[in-house]
Amino acid sequence: MVRPRTWVEISKPAVRHNFEQLRKLIAPVPLAPVIKANAYGHGILELISCLDLRRMWGVCVANGAEAINLRDHQYRGRILVMSSWQSDQLSELINRQVDLAVWDLNSLKLINQAAKKINKSINIHIKLDCGTTRIGFLEPDFQKLSLDLKRRHKNINIAAAFSHLANSESANPTITSRQLERFATLRKSLNLSDRGAHIACTAAALRYPASRLDMVRYGLGLYGLWPSIEIKNWVYQNIPKFNLQPVLTWYSKLLQIKRVTAGTRIGYGWTYRVKRPTTLGIIPVGYADGYRRQWSNQSWVMVAGQRAPVLGRICMNLIMVDLKWLKSPRQNQIVTLIGDGIEADRLAKIGQTINYEVVTAIHPDIPRIIV
């Protein structure tokens, strides 16, 4: 098999394991995998092919284009667009039976007009802002919103009210508890208590059973990643049988191997100087692929089970590593960039970011291979 210069492997057994871990915990509440942003960098089409579609509510995406892409690739299950859609997409989204978020009076008006024009039914999910302060209705809108909901076209069905939690990954439950209470109050004031409701992400579903309501949006945990060390520790202490398996491994291979003398300076800006004769490996990956420049001189890759520290600045398309622990490195030898003990969390800490950003930054054009 001729391998590309870099590729990502997606473990189907790990996806299914992670899904079943939460499904069993929260049953009978249905799960809706969140596969926005190219399935958090894992590959939206590859990820969905790993799921047992009979065991879930459907899937959640961020925008209309993602929903259309899924329909174009023959996904026939339920889809919720959670964040945004464009007005010129509405007819297609309604025709293709995609559930849509409504976040202000204008978005409700546009959906109402589109459904009436084509005389097709559409499920809407009303986004309420209960403290995260992103998209969503605020209380000053409620009087007008109530009137508009009463006047909505007969083909518009209110499937659910939903919201988002700002701090469910934290060790402190105060903010989350306050938001859950707020969400219940807002639903009641709009006479939506008898409709469906969803607010829980991975962290909330694990720690706050009251947040599970009528559906759980399963994002980061599906990919075998923890929302925070606080949630991970809490789960280990309180739900010891619950565990996650990393889904993604990122590989490349050695493009060139060279010996350099003591004192040689490496890369742009000469930010690293070797103190001894060094075997240097060059890898054809860089920040254009999502291997972040912030990791320069701090991260490492794995070659034949051995650490190979990154030397010098990470380039747009190349990385230089120290192969000092390898007796006989070979050109085209496989290199692990994420996996084999290199956790997305560790790389996130080095880059002062979060594991979400590490995996979603992997370029979508890099092949994803299901294993």
Can you tell me about this structure?
The chain has 371 residues and is an alpha/beta fold. It is elongated. It has 2 domains: 227 residues, Alanine racemase (TIM Barrel), CATH 3.20.20; 95 residues, Beta Barrel (Lyase, Ornithine Decarboxylase, Chain A, domain 1). The longest helix has 16 residues. It starts with 5 loop residues before the first strand and ends with a strand. It has 12 helices and 19 strands.
Indicate the topology.
Elements: E1 6-10, H1 12-26, E2 31-33, H2 36-40, H3 44-50, E3 59-63, H4 64-72, E4 79-84, H5 90-95, E5 99-102, H6 105-118, E6 122-127, H7 142-150, E7 156-162, H8 174-189, E8 196-198, H9 202-207, E9 216-218, H10 229-238, E10 248-253, E11 256-260, E12 265-266, E13 272-273, E14 278-283, E15 300-303, E16 306-309, E17 319-322, E18 334-338, H11 344-350, H12 355-360, E19 368-370
Parallel strand pairs: 1-19, 2-9, 3-4, 4-5, 5-6, 6-7, 7-8
Antiparallel strand pairs: 1-10, 10-18, 11-14, 12-13, 14-17, 15-16, 15-18
N- to C-terminal distance: 15 Å
The percent range for helix content is 25-40%
Shape: elongated
Largest sheet: 6 strands, mixed
Low-confidence stretches: none
Class based on secondary structure composition and strand pairing: alpha/beta
Biggest β-sheet: strands ordered side by side in the sheet = 16-15-18-10-1-19
CATH topology of the largest domain: TIM Barrel
Rounded average pLDDT: 96
CATH architecture classification name of the largest domain: Alpha-Beta Barrel
Give the total of domains. 2
Q: Report strand %.
A: 15-25%
